[in-house]
Amino acid sequence: MSEYDLTPCPLFANMSPTEIEELTNRCVSATKEYEKGEYIVRQGTPINFLYLLVAGLVRTAMLTQDDNILEIDTIQPVSPLAPAFIFANHSIFPVDVVAMEHTVLFLIPKTTLQQEMMQNEKLLQNFLRINSNMIVFLSRKVQMLSIRSLRMKLAIYFLENTSEEQTSFHLHRTQSQLAEYFGVQRPSLSRTLGEMITDGAISLDRQQITIRSRQKLRSYL
């Protein structure tokens, strides 16, 4: 397990590299690798393992009742996938998980994770914190979907992914994927981005977004 740096993983917060190494050696039952475009799991798949993303990049999306694809998030390592659902009464993946590049995951059996958390207070606290943060994320996602104005959605998204000090970030999505994320058609997204660029709020270089005026973005809200 030592070939991957797992210390940034929120599941292992406040744990030493030695503790993490010993824990993963005890708990990880399999290592899975996927190539770009491969499905890691399908929506509705029973959750029998904690899937820990240790390398690569994945996107999550769900099929709505009217057969539209709704992108939920792009996940970078080191992160657990769908931890909030693993101990649910109806424990299934709520989304499709697709590799966006060569991706590596560790699999920890559900029963093993439960036993480990009963003996490891740090791990239990970290797991609870991750799930709480997931609830906050999902509530923001629902709030985002309830907003009708695409310009407002984009302004919130850009403000949340930058700061006064860090004024740019890389989009790990194509424009088609970003359109799916916001539940709109690509031409609508391209038009609105163009308007925001013309307004001087942002600049776009390939997939690099730079905030030119946070005040302008806030005026859209």
Tell me, rounded to a whole number, the average pLDDT: 90
The arrangement of helices and strands along the chain is: HEEEEEEEEHHHEHHEEH
Span between termini: 46 Å
* % residues in beta strands: 15-25%
Instruction: Tell me roughly what share of residues is in helical segments.
Output: 25-40%
Shape designation: globular
Care to count the β-strands?
11
Strand arrangement within the widest β-sheet reads 1-8-3-6
Write the SSE topology.
Blueprint: H1 17-27, E1 30-34, E2 39-41, E3 49-55, E4 58-63, E5 69-75, E6 79-81, E7 96-99, E8 103-109, H2 110-119, H3 121-146, H4 150-160, E9 168-170, H5 175-182, H6 186-198, E10 202-205, E11 208-211, H7 214-219
Antiparallel strand pairs: 1-8, 2-7, 3-6, 3-8, 4-5, 4-7, 9-11, 10-11
Helix pairs in contact: 2-3, 5-6
Would you kindly provide a written description of the structure presented here, covering whatever features stand out?
By secondary structure, the protein is an alpha+beta fold. Helices cover about 40% and strands about 25% of the residues. It is built from 7 helices and 11 strands. The protein has helices spanning about 15-25, 110-120, 120-145, 150-160, 175-180, 185-200, 215-220, and strands at about 30-35, 40, 50-55, 60-65, 70-75, 80, 95-100, 105-110, 170, 200-205, 210. It has a 4-stranded antiparallel beta sheet. Strands 2-7-4-5 form a 4-stranded antiparallel beta sheet. The chain has a 3-stranded antiparallel beta sheet with strand order 9-11-10. Strand 4 (about 60-65) and strand 5 form a beta hairpin. The longest helix is centred in the middle third of the chain and has 26 residues, at about 120-145. The chain is globular. The N and C termini lie far apart (about 45 Å).
